[in-house]
Description:
By secondary structure, the protein is an alpha/beta fold. The protein has a single domain (2-106), classed as Rossmann fold. The protein is built from five helices and five strands; from the N terminus they run E-E-H-H-E-H-E-H-H-E. It has a five-stranded parallel sheet with strand order 2-1-3-4-5. Helix 3 links the parallel strand 3 (50-53) and strand 4.
Amino acid sequence: MRVLLDEQLDWRLGRFFGEGFGVETVAGRGWKGKKNGELLALMEGEGFDALVTVDKGIPRQQNLSRHAVAVVSLAARSTRLRDTAPIVEGGLEKIRSAPPGKATRLP
């Protein structure tokens, strides 16, 4: 499964995904500063399966059903690794099964 970490997340979060995940970052792809709709379209074109973010507004701002990419939002206290890593580690199955064109929230 190919996952893209949104630009506000620490790149080291990719270490917590485990086997079966290919994790890249928005910054690493050179997509920093892209608007959400453009980012989702770029992801589709490059074969990504999911966007992991802390941005709660994407489902309200975008018509996700138009995109073949899942959006997984982390309900973290902050974007710090100590707050996001446990959510990812505990939610790997939910990330893996997140449906394309929909938003999934991980507590």
